[in-house]
Amino acid sequence: MIKALIVDDEAPARREMRRLLAAHDSIDVVGDARDLATARGLLLRTRPDVVFLDIRLAKASGFDLLGDVDEETAVVFVTAYDEHAIRAFEANALDYLVKPVEPERLARTVERLEARAADGEPARAPAPFTPLRWVFLEAGDTSEFVELASITHVTAESGGSRVHTEDGRSRPATKSLKRWEERLPPHDFLRVHRSAIVNLRHVERVVPWSHYSYRIRLRGWKEPVTMSRRYARETRGRLR
Q1: Which of 199, 195, 201 is nearest to 213 (CA)?
Q2: Which residues, given as ranges, of the chain have pLDDT below 70?
Q3: How many Å apart are CA 208 and CA 65, to the nearest integer?
Q4: How far from chain centre, in Å, is Cα 32?
Q5: How many whole angstroms separate alpha carbon 27 and alpha carbon 99?
Q6: pLDDT tens digits for 99-119?
């Protein structure tokens, strides 16, 4: 059995995680905590194999608990916010789940816990992620890291956005274009249309299209991105 501890300041969230974990015979929930003090006591008494840890704990942070967690204990962050993903993996977290947690997504986490328990691997192996190199994409029951430099552009679509990369692939994302504009490094990424952000490092050329717009050609993509006149002056200035 894999002993699990749940740490979340909201009782409904703790109950929901218990319910989801109850579907997995290999998981034994040995306790739950609403705050850091209670969590620290349970860590000493129960010696869990994994901690399902919320990041925002009232006025505290789940990151503050990491110093009390044994190296052999896996940490799975569970949060409603995806902007902490890079820091979580820098802390060598086993996984990062975004609320509301999908059963299929949790099942993959449990599979990783089971595999590590069977292989006797360390729970928190070093993770080669740095904030300036990677972005975390979450869309439905899928999630992955994408290297920042590989992103050519991001476009708006119903229910979120789509991230396009230099290999010709595109991936859905839950973040809105406004959220991307706030998160992406402004020295490389620029809003060129109300529905598009481009990585200036991938721009090949800008050509006039009509009296009201331009077309931006990006490496790796046949279809150009439209740049509206509203954004044209700043874009041309940055490209010079």
Answers
A1: 195
A2: 82-91, 120-133, 138-143, 211, 236, 239-240
A3: 55
A4: 24
A5: 20
A6: 889 999 899 899 989 988 887
70 and 99 both lie in a single domain: yes
User: Do the domain assignments include residue 86?
Assistant: yes
User: Which of these, 107, 112, 101, 6, lies nearest to 53 by C-alpha position?
Assistant: 6
Which structure tokens are listed for 111? 């599979």
- The domain that holds 7 is classified in CATH as 3.40.50.2300
What is the domain extent for residue 204?
134-239
Q: Report the amino acid identity of residue 23.
A: A
Is 84 within a domain?
A: yes
- Cα separation, 197 vs 193, whole angstroms: 7
Q: Where a domain ends, among 119, 147, 169?
A: 119
| Overall domain count for the chain | 2
With respect to residue 205, please indicate whether it lies within any of the assigned structural domains. Answer: yes
Q: 């292989």: which residue's tokens?
A: 119
**If residue 31 lies in a helix (H) or strand (E), which one and from where to where?**
strand 27-33
Query: 26 — phi, psi (to 5°)?
Result: -80, -10
